[in-house]
């Protein structure tokens, strides 16, 4: 819980009442590698704070998994589109490692945001970070070579090679594993 509180305090000052409400509203989950937090076709009703572990978001297309984001410690994770719109998810959210998460329901989160505007600010910032990651992903996919995308990934998250299977990294970069191997050999 301390990691969650520290993360929120990066964005806002919490009143004692808000701090107590956060502590009461989030529930700890310790889950094994491979657990699906969200499945395609299911409406997402939870937001998770990742205290420890690694997560990926992926779609399936013609039986293939296409990874489109990763998250690590101190990230909020969910299927944001489904969570916000309350429509069925088009993605899966899966733990890549055994993980410790702090989880809150959508309804409880909205109650907290209505009561404590400093928490509304934190959620707004979390949504903004997610949007920025999506825009960066779009720019990378449209305007950068495979080698540039890989170099950017290593610069932004150098630990990724130790924690994420190469197949998921290749999928994230929009290249085959063979191309990823060639790019890695050149760099």
CATH topology name of the largest domain, in short, is: Jelly Rolls
Helix content: 40-55%
Largest sheet: 4 strands, antiparallel
- The computed structural class is alpha+beta
The CATH architecture term of the largest domain is Sandwich
Strand proportion, as a percent range, falls in 15-25%
As a whole number of angstroms, the C-alpha radius of gyration is 17 Å
Q: What's the number of domains?
A: 2
The number of helical segments is 9
**What general outline do the C-alpha atoms trace?**
globular
How would you spell out the order of helices and strands? HHEEEEEEHEEHHHHHH
Strand order of the largest sheet: 1-8-3-6
Q: What kind of oligomer do you see?
A: single chain
Structure description:
- It comes from Flaviaesturariibacter amylovorans.
- The strands form two sheets. A four-stranded antiparallel β-sheet has the order 1-8-3-6.
- The protein folds into two domains: 2-125, Jelly Rolls; 144-187, no CATH class.
- 50% of the residues lie in helices and 24% in strands.
- It is an alpha+beta fold and 187 residues long.
Q: What does this entry show, briefly?
A:
Pfam families: cNMP_binding (PF00027). It comes from Flaviaesturariibacter amylovorans. The protein has 187 residues and is of the alpha+beta class.
Topology:
Blueprint: H1 2-9, H2 16-25, E1 27-31, E2 36-38, E3 46-52, E4 55-61, E5 64-71, E6 75-77, H3 80-85, E7 92-95, E8 99-105, H4 106-115, H5 117-143, H6 146-156, H7 160-163, H8 166-173, H9 177-186
Antiparallel strand pairs: 1-8, 2-7, 3-6, 3-8, 4-5, 4-7
Domain Cyclic nucleotide-binding: 10-121
InterPro entries: cNMP-bd_dom, cNMP-bd_dom_sf, Env_Response_Regulators, RmlC-like_jellyroll
Organism: Flaviaesturariibacter amylovorans
